[in-house]
Amino acid sequence: GSPSSHAASADGADAGPGSKLQAQWRAKNAKQIKLISERVNNNLELQSLVMDVIDDYEKAGQSANRRGLSLVDTVTPKQKTKAEVDHSVVHDGDKKVGRARAVYSKWSTKWLMELFLYCEPTLDQHALELLGHRDRFPELFEFAWGLKVTGDGNDKVGNPDQTKRDLFCSLKALYDMNQCRLADFGRFIVDGVIDWKAAGIFQIVGTETSESGGVTSVVLKNRILQKTVTIGSEHLGGDQGPFDIAANWSESSAALLSPTDSWKLS
What we know:
By secondary structure, the chain is an alpha+beta fold.
């Protein structure tokens, strides 16, 4: 067509269905980039997680191309089932978050239940209901999102005037960047109780002993960061345990515990 017809299409005056879809896609793309940028700004750990996800995605695409497949063909049946779920539906999505929910720890069981299923639809609703009845949602939220909602100094919603839909979208982006920690989490929930010893952030992997057999240090693994943490004799002060981990859902609050003392792991 003539230059004038191209200009008309670019301005949207004569745009057809294809052009409108492209415009919608560009708007959604820009919005998602903005949300992700806001979430990872000044957080090197989140930035590293994002880059790892991108690298894995590109490697999967390259592998698929070599085998003559599309990237969709490389997705497992479980992932396909998850991908086919419509994540766009948020009940009362246009509702403002409001001042009453400005702190995550003040959220109702209903809102937290909706958020869990919105971000991880593979979770069993009945198992979640039991956790909700036993007031275990704050622990689950802090574990999945890394936001402080138990104890003191709880995190706040950035903008209480934003819509519920926008906030859920932001939290979904953060959940994905946190490596979808609630995926396949049902095996750790039994009768409304979470087995944090098995599911939690830290795991005791061993102890170091002296020649006389006394414990000189405890070695733990951070399952999220895949790093080891050692509590040495200068901290243990001769304490022989037995040792356990308290608040194992929280990177900031988790502590090594003995019958007589405790040591923060952050």
